[in-house]
């Protein structure tokens, strides 16, 4: 028996090397190297990485900006009086923001303010589809979830296949120390390579309207913030006009109407001089940092451009003025003022 075990040992070690050491060493999604990010040429699982990093450093930040990758354009370090961390992660939705804040609070993180950017993704993406997606798998809340979470990254074939991207494909985005300092943001001066003559709305076949669930998750997020004396700031992302029009065709009005019943919010979406100008967008999904700066100026400095405000950009929506807002800026979008409707 002893001789058999001795013969078996090399095979056990080989299996351990193959099944554990190799995936952990390569770690394409950076889940095993939370505090030592590697630029693998593959987008890390930012939901997990950022949440885990914040938990390990509970006193470093006192404000958090949540949202999908669209809020990556907002340089939250420009918010004066706060150490605000940009939690942006791919297809981030309210349920995940709620769970992230819950686990942060459980680990002693005590933010003064939480900001959340919402848009069509917030009510059209079912968070359940992220559970088996290595890029978007949410932060595990229980011990059993943690075991399942790490197991899906211990796949040698996946890790080895990622080496092609790491060593032979050009970097689209580089990930470095900024992901720890500010959460990573889209750089100023980035150029769009979109052929705008062929541009289409940013839409996916995975979209499915779940407005009631999304609104309930935002309501729970507000209750959690209120219970912990956290200021909650909700705002709408300024979707490119092509994506915005697609959203309106698919329930965006109902989402906004319901959102106003849950909490006040700043509106930056709609048809206005920002959303109809292609120079303000990387493509029809992501707006440029200069747009994010204007949004921060409205929310934190009260610097409102009167022409843009007349088009609904920066409009503070409440339960009391929501119907007027919807009638003027959603139902009657593009019909007031001298707004140029031609994309330029």
Give a verbal description of the structure.
There is one protein chain. With 344 residues, the chain is of the alpha/beta class. It is 42% helix and 7% strand. The protein has 13 helices and six strands. The strands form two sheets. Strands 2-1-3-4 form a four-stranded parallel sheet. It has a two-stranded antiparallel sheet with strand order 5-6. Helix 10 (252-262) packs antiparallel against helix 13. The longest helix is centred in the N-terminal third of the chain and has 25 residues, at 2-26. The chain starts with a helix and ends in a 13-residue tail after the last helix. Residues 334-342 have low confidence and may be disordered.
Beta-strand content? 5-15%
Separation of the first and last Cα atoms: 78 Å
Q: Largest sheet, if any?
A: 4 strands, parallel
Structural class: alpha/beta
Structure summary, number of beta strands: 6
> Helical region count?
13
Radius of gyration (Å)? 22 Å
The gross shape turns out to be globular
Helix content: 40-55%
Mean pLDDT score: 91
- Model regions low in confidence, pLDDT < 50 over at least 5 residues: 334-342
Strand order in the largest sheet:
2-1-3-4
């Amino acid at each position: 028996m002893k001789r058999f075990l001795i013969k078996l040992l090399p095979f056990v070690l080989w299996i351990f090397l193959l099944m554990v050491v190799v995936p952990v060493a390569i770690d394409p999604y950076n889940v095993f190297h939370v505090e030592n990010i590697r630029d693998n040429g593959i987008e890390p699982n930012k939901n997990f990485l950022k949440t885990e990093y914040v938990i390990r450093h509970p006193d470093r930040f006192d404000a958090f900006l949540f949202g999908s990758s669209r809020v990556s354009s907002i340089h939250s370090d420009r918010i004066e009086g706060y150490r605000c961390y940009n939690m942006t992660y791919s297809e981030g939705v309210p349920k995940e923001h709620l769970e992230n804040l819950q686990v942060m609070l459980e680990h002693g993180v005590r933010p003064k303010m939480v900001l959340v950017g919402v848009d069509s993704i917030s009510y059209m993406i079912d968070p359940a589809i992220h559970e088996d997606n290595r890029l978007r798998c949410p932060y595990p809340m229980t011990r059993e979830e943690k075991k399942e979470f790490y197991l899906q990254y211990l796949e040698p074939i996946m890790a080895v296949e990622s080496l092609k991207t790491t060593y032979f494909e050009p970097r689209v985005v580089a990930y470095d120390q900024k992901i720890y300092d500010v959460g990573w943001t889209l750089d100023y001066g980035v150029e769009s390579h979109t052929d705008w003559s062929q541009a289409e709305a940013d839409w996916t076949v995975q979209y499915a309207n779940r407005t009631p669930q999304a609104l309930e998750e935002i309501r729970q997020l507000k209750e959690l913030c209120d219970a912990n004396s956290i200021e909650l700031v909700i705002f709408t992302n300024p979707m490119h006009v092509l994506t915005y029009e697609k959203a309106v065709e698919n329930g965006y009005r109902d989402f906004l109407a319901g959102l106003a019943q849950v909490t006040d919010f700043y509106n930056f979406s709609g048809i206005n001089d920002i959303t109809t100008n292609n120079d303000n967008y990387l493509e029809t999904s992501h707006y440029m940092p200069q747009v994010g700066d204007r949004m921060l100026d409205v929310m934190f400095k009260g610097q409102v451009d009167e022409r843009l405000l007349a088009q609904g950009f920066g409009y503070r929506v409440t339960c009391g003025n929501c119907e007027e807002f919807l009638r003027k800026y959603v139902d009657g979008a593009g019909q007031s003022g001298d707004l140029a409707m031609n994309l330029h």
